[in-house]
Amino acid sequence: MSKGMAGQRRGEWLELMPGKLNPPEHGGRYEAALVWLERELGCPAKLLRSLDAEGGIKLAGDRLRVRLFPPKISQYEPVEQPVRILYEDDFCLVVHKSAGIKVHPDGESREPSLANFVSGIYSLRDEPVAPAHIHRLDEYTTGPVLYAKNIFAQLKLDAAMARKEIERVYVALVEGVVNPALIRINEPIGRDRHHPSRRRVSKAGKEAVTRVEVLETFPKASLVRLRLETGRTHQIRVHMSHAGHPLIGDALYGGSTKLLPHQALHGESLAFPHPLTGETVEVPDSWPEEWDKVRAWLHS
């Protein structure tokens, strides 16, 4: 896919200027446009076949139009709740998730999820858009969550996620003074047979790698920055607990809840290749305000 791919949205269609199209040996300019969409736009083959079959590709002169923005209604009931939007364009949405909110309904809680709030954004705007989340955060972890606003973006971002091209950087307040020599934790993670919601380091588990950077130390705690090379459930919480530094507030993995009622874990930033242009989009998210009081207490 070409970096900096230019395109203009016109309603449900994306208008592109592919330049000269060289027809393949068997076919005309339309067939050449299909080849160009796959090679240059990076359009997934399955989506390309669907667009072709449904008349979603039009070629007129030097203009190529692709129906990438068909109307879609969310499966989640809209709840109009203020949501902090960190980034948005025609393809992607990044919103801040607060502590105590699930990314999507789990069938157990009746409380609305972030999915309901995101659905509410477009209901309020009267826009037929149904974003799909690309990754998750634990219920009590704060930070940015990336959404795809159409199937093209979803397929491209899912593929980027599988190739580990989406970087998520976290910060955490952990118990104890972390040795600066702890820069990488490479320990497989599996289920805990004795606790259905817990995970643990296990030789039979899946590969899990977390990079660690010590940012600040306190008399009995540390502030660390963490980068994920893999995305296992509770990975940071399990790895830091295994290293002897459970997250402050993380009772599930041995942390004290004296200062916080939930784990002190926040997504500091998110970086991803834009589905259309391929250019890296970096989205920061400011630290939770409640951490200021916790850090002040840790200094005392």
From TrEMBL:
Residues 93-242 form the Pseudouridine synthase RsuA/RluA-like domain. CDD domains: PseudoU_synth_RluA_like. Gene3D superfamilies: Pseudouridine synthase (3.30.2350.10). Its EC number is 5.4.99.-. Keywords: Isomerase. The keyword Transcription does not apply. It catalyses: a uridine in RNA = a pseudouridine in RNA. NCBIfam families: rluA_subfam (TIGR00005). Responsible for synthesis of pseudouridine from uracil. Belongs to the pseudouridine synthase RluA family. This is Pseudouridine synthase. It comes from Paenibacillus vini.
